[in-house]
Structures are given as structure tokens and as C-alpha cells.
Amino acid sequence: MAATGVCVCATARGDQSVTLAWDASQDPGVAGYRVHVGQASGNYTASYDAGTNTMCKLTGLKEGQTNYLAVTSYDSTGVEGLPSGEISYLVPGLMLAALPRKAGDPMRLSFPVVPGHWYEVQASVDLTNWSTIWRTAPATSNAWMVFQDPQTGSFQSRFYRLAMH
């Protein structure tokens, strides 16, 4: 079986962020908004006061983690209204590899994608010279993408990295 390594390009490392925006409430009693975040649907473990802003940048998100988000409005006494519809956000920047089960099986690589971006899977045998071996179309949804490298068994060792555009 060929030896295999996985690398993620430097631009995809580190904490990630996402900006969430919503329409302002027409209720004159609204004094501000609160963004609720959790790693399970309907179970929010953190909240952020956006004040009167209708946009909030969430930072410190971890690659490969799905975050569930909802917004509430509150009045001048801090009483919150019902939450908005929930959205989920799968944070990009992580590539997972499943080793081949037997000789000749392809390496299976999976990674999250975000709308509006396209991705390149690159491979190298020496960690110096890299070749693009697969490109995605621009993503239209926030989901996991899977690529199987049919050339896995053709190399003594092969390393992979992911580039987001």
C-alpha cells in the first residue's frame, strides 16, 4: 500500500469567520438584536449582542464544524422575541482523508465548501512540486465535497492539499 500524507494550504488554516445579515424588524419596540449560535440544531450555547446592527461577524469558528444560527430581537427591557428561522453553516478549511482499504483502492478526500468559491485538490510526491489533480465548479451550497483519487496506487507516496478560490 502506498504511503499517504495530507496537508492543508496555509491560507485555510486558523480560525474562520462568517458574517450573518438579516432584515430589520418593522416593530418600533425593537431595541436590538441577539445572534444565537450552537453546534446542535435548536441548542444554542452562545449569544452575541449585535445592538441595532442588522449584521454580525462571528469569529473563532473551527474548520469542519457545523454551526446553527438564529437571530432574536429584543425590546428596551431586554425581553427577546421569537427566534428567526435557523440556518446552518459548515465552516470550510478542513480536508479529511480516508485511507484506501486495500491496494488499488482510491484515496477518499472530503472537505466542506461554501457558496461562491471553487476548490482545487493538489497532490505532490515531494512536498515541493504540486499539481492540481481536481477542480470543483463554484459551490452553490454549504456542504461536504468528496473526491476519490484514482491515481493513489501509482505512487510510492503522495501528499494532498486543498486550495480555496
How many domains, as an integer? 2
Mean pLDDT: 89
Strand content: over 45%
Global shape: elongated
Q: Can you tell me the CATH class of the largest domain?
A: Mainly Beta
Number of helices: 0
Unreliable spans are: 1-13
- Biggest sheet details: 4 strands, mixed
CATH topology term of the largest domain? Immunoglobulin-like
Order of helices and strands: EEEEEEEEEEEEE
- Count of DSSP strands: 13
Q: Quickly give the CATH architecture of the largest domain.
A: Sandwich
Q: Give the distance, in angstroms, between the N- and C-terminal Cα atoms.
A: 32 Å
Based on secondary structure, the structural category is mainly beta
Indicate the multimeric state: single chain
For the largest sheet, list the strands in their spatial order: 1-13-10-11
Q: What is the helix content? A: under 10%
